[in-house]
From TrEMBL:
Gene3D superfamilies, per database record: Neurotransmitter-gated ion-channel ligand-binding domain (2.70.170.10), Neurotransmitter-gated ion-channel transmembrane domain (1.20.58.390)
Phylogenetic classification of the source organism: Eukaryota, Metazoa, Chordata, Craniata, Vertebrata
Keywords for this protein: Cell membrane, Disulfide bond, Glycoprotein, Ion channel, Ion transport, Ligand-gated ion channel, Membrane, Postsynaptic cell membrane, Receptor, Signal, Synapse, Transmembrane, Transmembrane helix, Transport
Assembly behavior: Forms homopentameric as well as heteropentameric serotonin-activated cation-selective channel complexes with HTR3A. The homomeric complex is not functional. Heteropentameric complexes display properties which resemble that of neuronal serotonin-activated channels in vivo.
Domain Neurotransmitter-gated ion-channel transmembrane intervals: 230-315
Source superkingdom: Eukaryota
The protein's name: 5-hydroxytryptamine receptor 3B
Gene that this sequence comes from: HTR3B
Amino acid sequence: SGILTTDAHHPSNSTLHHLTQQLLQNYRKEVRPVQNWTQATTIYLDFLVHAVLDVDAQNQKLKTSIWYKEIWNDEFLAWNSSLFDGIGEISLPLSAIWSPDIIINEFMDVEKSPDLPYVYVNSSGTIKNNKPIQVVSACSLETYAFPFDTQNCSLTFKSILHTVTDLDLAFLRSTEDIEKDKALFMNDGEWELLSVPSTYHVMHNEAGDFAQIQFHVIIRRRPLVYVVNLLIPSIFLMVVDLGSFYLPPNCRSRITFKTSILVGYTVFKVNMLDEVPRSAMSTPLIGVFFTICMAFLVLSLSKSILLVKFLHTERNSGQDHPLFCFQRTSRARLADSTHPIRTSLVVDDSPTDVPHCQDHQTQGEVLKDALVQLQSISSCVQALDQTAQQEASWVAILYRFDKLLFRGYLLVLGVYTITLCSLWGIWSSLKTTVRPSS
Ligand SMILES: *[C@@H]1O[C@H](CO)[C@@H](O)[C@H](O)[C@H]1NC(C)=O
Ligand SMILES: *[C@@H]1O[C@H](CO)[C@@H](O)[C@H](O)[C@H]1NC(C)=O
Ligand SMILES: *[C@@H]1O[C@H](CO)[C@@H](O)[C@H](O)[C@H]1NC(C)=O
Ligand SMILES: *[C@@H]1O[C@H](CO)[C@@H](O)[C@H](O)[C@H]1NC(C)=O
Ligand SMILES: *[C@@H]1O[C@H](CO)[C@@H](O)[C@H](O)[C@H]1NC(C)=O
């Protein structure tokens, strides 16, 4: 009886074993499972986006986690379930049966997808192959509108070898259902899944006609974190920068002020480099804008330096003062210019003071002397006036240039504000068009 019980529990006595053996006994996995070779095997596909793991604009890669389902019919794997204890469905090793060679066209790298060795087969020979996969796919990512950007990445499924006459593709569910299905999507990351429209094509090339199914994964960035961390601080910096134009252009503290803003900008840009996606094809608008603002700042700063330098050399022509500030040099210059006149007067005064009660002959000389002195004073004043006029004209030119720069700055700021608002508008209109349908 011991032998009988072991026999009764022998695996070869189980119905499952029996059925599997029956099915695979004469099975050739090399052969496409159709009785009539003219008939194409149709593979039904289903696709669900589970998560967006990484969007790499620099390398133009998208990493997604997807649930992918293939269903096809194997005419050689059908059985009469009433002959096998009513078994309706069994699992078979995928390696033992024929399976379609469907790949993702944009595929760059399959990362750590679990290797699932079994598939379900039901009694009419329908095989279901479900697999979760992490796909790293090539995708042309547009960073122009960052952080209000939407990305459209396609995943194209097609057979690598079989033409449409051998292997056809079809949707398992209706395309509307696939498009709106976000049930599985992990919706608390940076990216929001808008929709997954899909299309079926027959692609013609020199090797033949191939059936292909494209799923367009349309995702949108949630911009709040970037608005708080990047946009708002940058707008503050820009407003302060704009305020610096209200300082008179020849004020030396303006240089210090602008230099510190420039340093602030530089620190900000270095910080931003890590946050803003970089791609070779398109630069984010926000980066272009910052560069333009920086150019304005540099232009205005160099103009201020030029102004101070010009006024300084004009007033100290010939003298070498290492002083940089405008107001101090002007006062020093004034003191310098008045000094020789005063000393010469004093020198002339002292002899006239002592021999005050002397003869009239000397009075004519004194008058002559005074005339000469007056002439020299008037020429000195004229020269001063001329330089003052020259200075004034330069200051006027630089003021005008400053005004021009200010206007340009305002214009750029205005354009940027309008662009940001319209991008925001487009971004939120996408939301409103998608919401009612979902
Ligand atoms: C298989 O098991 C049944 C009982 O479930 C028994 O009657 C039969 O003899 C066994 N057959 C073999 C070949 O072991
Ligand atoms: C195969 O199918 C085609 C039509 O689909 C039919 O004309 C042909 O006779 C079939 N061949 C066999 C061997 O059944
Ligand atoms: C399955 O087998 C049962 C019993 O042998 C038979 O009556 C039935 O017609 C078969 N069904 C099919 C679809 O062959
Ligand atoms: C096998 O599965 C397919 C697809 O799900 C279904 O249409 C078919 O009715 C199933 N066959 C049986 C016998 O359950
Ligand atoms: C996504 O891109 C594909 C082509 O790559 C295009 O056919 C499709 O219309 C695009 N979808 C949207 C919503 O932009």
